[in-house]
Specification:
Layout: E1 3-9, H1 11-14, H2 21-27, E2 34-40, H3 46-50, H4 54-58, E3 63-67, H5 70-74, H6 82-88, H7 97-114, E4 118-122, H8 134-153, E5 156-158, H9 160-171, H10 183-195, H11 200-206, H12 220-238
Parallel strand pairs: 1-2, 1-3, 3-4, 4-5
């Protein structure tokens, strides 16, 4: 029997700048066992996701995963262009931890009210490559909020942040300082892929990054951990 899975999120789920974790998740199962639907929009905050759930609840899958909050966490860091992003993403208020938690709670409440899906909230991938650095600490703080929402709404919390932190501490990669990804840098990645035929993993390796291409978007190793925690936390258990 085929399990229908809806994956909700931002650019990590859209997979233009990240390795496609949906593809890796699909490969973990025999052909036809899992049918995946992608609901990812580049740059989305939890607020944006809340306002595009109609497409999900119109034909709800059996399993729903939510990977959102990376941009909310980035907005708490020094140097993030908050005003510019607020205009581009049409945010009605300045991003904050409390607003993120409120929006995520509303996302889960609607999914629970209007679907019968098994729901899993992923904690965030680690920002940057230094587990003790400010960016990683921000992703950890927002991951704790995700766990609180999951507990309050009685849905699963899938430990992506914990799994990636474990990998970073075990491998002890170079402590490359976190740099905020700009739109120009993202275009640069796309041009490297289109003109120089470089894979995301090649770009990641040239930059000395272990899990990401740019401290934010996932390479194959990072995306494989996303697929792993979804599979072991929701799909294997539900099967």
């Amino acid at each position: 029997m085929t399990t229908r899975v809806g994956c909700l999120g931002d650019s990590l789920t859209r997979a233009q700048l990240s390795v496609d974790y949906l593809d890796l998740l699909r490969r973990r199962h025999p052909s036809g066992d899992v049918r995946l639907a992608r609901f990812g929009v580049n740059g989305d905050f939890a607020h944006n996701l809340l306002h595009r759930l109609d497409a999900v609840v119109a034909d709800p899958p059996e399993v729903i995963t939510v990977l959102i909050g990376t941009n909310d966490a980035r907005a708490s860091l020094a140097g993030y262009p908050v005003e510019q992003v607020m205009r581009r993403k049409r945010l009605p208020e300045r991003p904050s931890a409390g607003w993120f938690q409120q929006c995520l709670g509303a996302v889960v409440a609607r999914l629970r009210a209007e679907t019968d899906a098994r729901i899993g909230l992923l904690s965030l991938p680690v920002l940057g490559q230094r587990p003790d650095g400010p960016a990683a600490q921000a992703s950890q703080a927002y991951s704790r909020m995700i766990a609180e929402v999951a507990a309050a709404e009685d849905v699963s919390c899938l430990p992506l942040h914990e799994r990636q932190t474990e990998e970073l501490r075990r491998a002890d990669p170079p402590p490359i300082p976190y740099r905020e990804a700009t739109p120009a840098a993202s275009v640069g990645v796309l041009l490297q892929r289109a003109l120089l035929r470089r894979s995301l993993d090649t770009i990641s390796r040239r930059r000395g990054l272990m899990l990401t291409t740019d401290h934010i978007h996932q390479n194959s190793r990072g995306a494989a951990l996303v697929a792993e925690v979804i599979d072991t936390g929701l799909l294997t258990r539900s099967g």
